[in-house]
Amino acid sequence: MNEVIRELHERKSVRAFTDQEITPDQKKEILLAAMAAPTAGNQQLYTILDITDSDLKQKLSVSCDHQPFIAKAGMVLIFCADFRKWYDTFKEGGCQPRKPGMGELMLAVSDANIAAQNAVTAAWSMGIGSCYIGDIMENCETHQDLLHLPEYVFPAAMLVFGYPTLQQQQRPKPQRCRLEDIVQENCYRVRNGEELRRMFAKECSAVPFEEWCRRFCERKYHSGFSREMSRSVAVYAGDFTG
Q1: Cβ contact 237:97 at 8 Å
Q2: Structural domains in the chain plus CATH codes
Q3: What is the distance between the alpha carbons of residues 188 and 195, in angstroms, rounded to a whole number?
Q4: What's the pTM value of the predicted model, to 2 decimals?
Q5: Which residues of 129-157 are buried (b: 16+ CB within 10 A; e: fewer)?
Q6: pLDDT tens digits for 40-60?
Q7: Of 182, 172, 183, 157, the residue nearest 79 (C-alpha)
């Protein structure tokens, strides 16, 4: 196993940070690595917001599901799926562009998330931990106001970075599904009940499958934040479908 693959396997989310600072040179390297990511047609359909204002970090720690560690992170980046810059560029060039559709949104979200993952991998190679904050997709009206997000710009992912505490370094990485649970050959096949139970057996060492499933469904899928995320994403998508 080479060094890159080893680090991909070892990387885990970090939610508690030491006071060690991320240097300007390290930040630049992480950002340049993000920008080196694969991108559709070399369009780089994203804009990265570097959140340096401590008051704004604090507000985001509240608006993103009340997670104080966001405000304590040494670096906070928001990866915005951005078709606005291309729409404006086409207009500037006299192209009379059509209104962007869902295809443009999905492509921009892919570009943004691929760039974000490059940043995660680059940071980990320097000993810097990170955590994805999906809650940035919630509370769209608040975040549009806080971040001055215009039409055709969607905050696809937020990342917080910092050096992990000893506890975070020693914390086991959550077990992933088996290869055969995730990979299917050539075409999609709907899994039967037995296969689903086998896939998630790793989660059911302490409780029966039905109990684990009920708890997880209520905690995640039926949660208020999940419903709010769906509402907010629909508002953002309205720019591309209305």
Answers
A1: no
A2: 3-174 (3.40.109.10)
A3: 14
A4: 0.96
A5: bbbbbebbbbbbeebbeebebeebbbbbb
A6: 999 999 999 999 999 999 999
A7: 157
